[in-house]
Amino acid sequence: MKLKPLIFIIILISIAGCSEKEEPVKEEEGKIIVLMYHRIVNGQATNLYERSVDDFEGDLRYLQQNKINVISFNDLGSIITAGKMPQGNSAIITFDDGDHSWYTLVKPLLLEYKMNATFFLWTNMIGQNSFIQWNEVEEMSHYYTREGQRLFVFGSHTWSHTYLLQRKSEFSTMTEYIAFLDYELDESKKLIESHTPGQVITLSLPYGDGFEDPDIIAAAQRNGYKFVRTSKWGAISNPSLNLFAIPSLPILDSTTADEIGFYLGI
User: Fold this and answer.
1) pTM of the complete model
2) Number of other CB atoms surrounding residue 139 within 10 Å
3) pLDDT in tens, 124-150
4) d(CA 206, CA 80)
5) Contact 97, 120 (CB under 8 A)
6) How far from chain centre, in Å, is Cα 88?
7) In CATH, which superfamily holds the domain spanning 23-264?
8) Angle, alpha carbons 229-265-63 (nearest 5°)
9) Distance between CA 244 and CA 246 in Å, rounded?
10) Measured CA angle at 107 (ends 106, 112), to 5 deg
């Protein structure tokens, strides 16, 4: 009987403890990094723009282990429209030019890690030398998630992969220069659309030339593009981004996966 007061006190303390509600930990708004690859190779990379397949898989593993969400350019557009950065960090995976390794090495790894990517095609070289074939582009463009999202989207790296701004002085009139821009952007767009479902809305500037140039941006808009990825280094940290001047992080032969984390503030 003497133990009853003590038991009563313990019960009261337990009830008081249960009544206290813990505040949920608010996850901070993250950043978005656009990763720019070129050629993936078996064995050791032999030039600046190659990445060994082992290092590439290490990058994918780094994204996975650090809970970096892989998103698309359409997702990025929705984020900018909403005016609010998402919780946690995100990445957009992109490739430039059109190397055949996209089909043989990149596709299997992206499927294994369940990640999507955008591939920018130098269209007048497709099917030649070490470039990917159009039938392979067609096959890749028809991979969908269960939710109906295309895993592999193809964008334009222009028709001839030429300098868009530096060549401006070659043209006698502005009319001729505009016609040149329209050909490079429209011809490549139409060719890709003849081999893949949907519209081509993403453009990668060759050599990064013409970043934020109003004539090039106007040409992109006029020809139906909604996103222009540049070679300007950086991450996206606020929703006021100009979608026609998207920064990126070139992933080179000597880039470490930790550099991705550095730009994301990990």
Assistant:
1) 0.89
2) 13
3) 999 999 999 999 999 999 999 888 889
4) 25
5) yes
6) 16
7) Glycoside hydrolase/deacetylase (3.20.20.370)
8) 65
9) 6
10) 100
